[in-house]
Amino acid sequence: MAEKFSAQLRRRGERIWRAIEGHSFLRELHAGTLPMDRFTYFILQDYVYLLDFAQILCQGGAKSPDLETLELFARHALGAVEVERSFHTSFGKSLGLSRQQLDGVPKGPTTQAYIGHLQSVARSGTLGELVAAVLPCYWIYGEVGRRLYRNRPSKPKIYRQWIETYASESFWQPVREQIQLMDKLGAAANSSERKRMAEYFMLSSRYEFMFWEQAYRLESWPL
Length: 223
Hints:
mainly alpha, Heme Oxygenase, Chain A
């Protein structure tokens, strides 16, 4: 049996994904020793990322060839707005941040670059290329949550809750749906489109690594 396209992409990104697994941010989060200012920075950047991500998923809906795929993207976009943003709002409250403070956060350099990449693919790419670009965001968070779930810290409570959220079945269901869609679209794509899909998947995976790095370094614009 031929290897599924998602498995090919996952294998190709192995070096990057292993670097993410070993990143200091996640190792310290798992141990419960991550400085809270780094976690707060991460939550703030993830929060401002989500609105743009939801809009990108809406563009996936606009490219959908059938009602089933349209429904998937509509549901996932709504989840990004309602579930994820309410999740981050609750984390914001735990960190002492108001909704106004959350909404006023400027995008960091990596956040801006990552969103720009996804927006570019959403505007000019095929549906398969768009799915390849957004899939690492789904898949990496699911894998991180699942891996960290074992021996998760009891304190601080907010770190344990974060891990449990991304390890949960409710998070993994849309992950699997996007992986299945990737396999379907990858099987139907020609060689040149599959090449672009792989390139976008790899670039998004690199941005995922940089997103953790940005938070760990408390990155800011130099000017």
